[in-house]
Please model this.
Amino acid sequence: MGVLLHNAKTQDGYPSSFRVRDIVVEPAVVLAPMEGVTDVAFRRLIRRIGGPGLTYTEFIASKGIAKGNRHAWRMAEFDPDERPIVLQIYGREPHLMAEAGRLLQDSGASIIDINMGCPSKKVCNHSGGSALMKEPKLALEIVKAVRAAVTIPLTVKMRSGFDATNRNAPELAWAFQEEGAEAITIHWRTRADRYMGTRAVDKIAETVQKVSIPVVGNGDVIDIPSAKAMFDDTGCAGVMVGRGALKNPWSMLEIGSWLRDIPYTPPAALERLGAIEFYIEQFISTMHTPDGDFAETAVLGKLKQMSKYFIADQTTRLQILRSQQLVDATDLLRRHFHGMAETAHAA
Ligand SMILES: Cc1cc2nc3c(=O)[nH]c(=O)nc-3n(C[C@H](O)[C@H](O)[C@H](O)COP(=O)(O)O)c2cc1C
Model:
């Protein structure tokens, strides 16, 4: 029912946008928060390509923000023109979550999001992330505390439940809405599923029926057919793309163009190379020390991490992984994409 209140529709009846209070998310496709991936450099790449109506930071430790930890504050960086931007926090202590929310609101966040979906041990072992779905009382206390601390929109991201016998996303979503949460994102998997499991989006559909705030559907949305299926099967207000954006940073442009009824042309090989080079430049620029140096090992490590997503060819990927120098790895990248461009030209 909430969907009708919040969405503008495409000609085919799919939502082209939705609102989180007064924030218009257009198109109704969102870049997922991903630890170790969606830093400011990656988000600059995605914004240069275009596509999402909303971007998220990686999850940020509320304790780190509240205590002024440099690393946590680095993770909270965003560009002044990156609007709207969601800053996602995790933790188990309501007062630290509230303090982090307040400080991040002051830093210019458009929306504060509470992480209740992360399956990682680092987060769950401290009762944060998806472990909170097993502790509804504490989860609710956290939402209440952050709500009281911030005036900007507050949202929650979670899984369908902790495990197969605890798929309580609809009940939790309703309770969070009653405490002032203004949108909910649900990844169809449970925490026990981690990244496996058989697609079951019923709890997303049930939540859409139960609440009046926008519900964003998440899990294996990678292209137009999978986005359509998420909208069709759940009635969600928007879709969130995670790993699909890693494998194909143009995926949200493709989905967003469809939602906006505008044509989309897939990138040619050299355009893809240009985008990766841009990303490396951005990553280097965020790694600079005050004396102008940058940590080459960190950049090389990042390139190796990302090449497993960006490069389909296994031989090139292995060669990049074995590179000792950044210059060798970027050379391999260039040769790979130039080779692809030549093949496409000859065809
Ligand atoms: C590398 C990686 C890091 C992630 N980090 C976060 C995170 O910081 N916060 C969060 O809420 N979810 C995190 N997730 C979960 C994603 O946001 C998303 O819910 C999940 O990947 C399912 O969407 P997908 O099938 O489109 O990838 C992460 C996922 C991946 C693959």
Observations:
- The CA atoms of residues 84 and 110 lie 5 Å apart.
- The pocket of flavin mononucleotide is lined by residues 32-37, 58-59, 88, 115, 117-118, 157, 187, 218-221, 241-244 (CB under 6 Å).
- Confidence is low (pLDDT under 50) at residues 1-6.
- The chain is about 50% helix and 15% strand.
